[in-house]
């Protein structure tokens, strides 16, 4: 049996497409990218198993004629993990669509502001000397308390404690 270059090229293409889709802001593309990564991993495990053989059941074949059951078990485990994570991401997509009618991850302005800081070490920052908009979120002056009636509960219809709807 001569090795071919087709399977490694397919695996590499699936990994490349999966990583490319994972870097997008659309959660649907992230889901498809993760599924492509899962399938590429399954193909990689399958190709690392070596040549096929007889079923790994004692009494059916000799030990040297049996296929290795470990890659098969790893592929089954990878399928279950991929399914679980895909279900979780699909639930996040549904939740995002139900709340905001948008499944794309928005740009976080706090991340942009932090990334714009130059040559500042965290140890050198003194929260008391920073402008209010540059203070960390946990600093007492940067927290704005809303009245109890303005606070939003989750999307479930539960009464707000101490207030009326």
Automatic annotation (TrEMBL):
Biased composition (Basic and acidic residues): 111-120, 132-154
Compartment annotation: Cell membrane
Positions of transmembrane segments: 6-23, 30-50, 70-93
Keyword entries, A-Z: Cell membrane, Membrane, Transmembrane, Transmembrane helix
Membrane topology category: Multi-pass membrane protein
UniProt feature, compositional bias: Acidic residues: 121-131
Stretches the record annotates as Disordered: 111-165
Stated family: Belongs to the CPA3 antiporters (TC 2.A.63) subunit C family.
Protein name from the UniProt record: Na(+)/H(+) antiporter subunit C
């Amino acid at each position: 049996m001569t090795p071919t270059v087709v399977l490694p090229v397919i695996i590499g293409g699936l990994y490349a497409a999966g990583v490319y889709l994972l870097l997008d802001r659309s959660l649907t593309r992230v889901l498809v990218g993760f599924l492509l990564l899962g399938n590429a991993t399954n193909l990689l495990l399958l190709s690392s198993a070596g040549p096929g053989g007889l079923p790994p059941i004692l009494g059916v074949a000799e030990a040297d004629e049996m296929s290795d059951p470990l890659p098969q078990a790893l592929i089954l485990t990878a399928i279950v993990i991929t399914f679980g994570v895909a279900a979780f991401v699909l639930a996040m997509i549904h939740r995002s669509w139900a709340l905001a009618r948008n499944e794309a991850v928005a740009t976080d302005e706090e991340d942009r502001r932090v990334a714009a800081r130059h040559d500042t070490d965290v140890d050198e920052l003194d929260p008391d000397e920073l402008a209010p908009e540059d203070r960390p979120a946990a600093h007492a002056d940067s927290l704005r308390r809303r009245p109890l009636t303005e606070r939003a509960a989750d999307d479930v219809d539960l009464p707000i404690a101490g207030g009326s709807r």
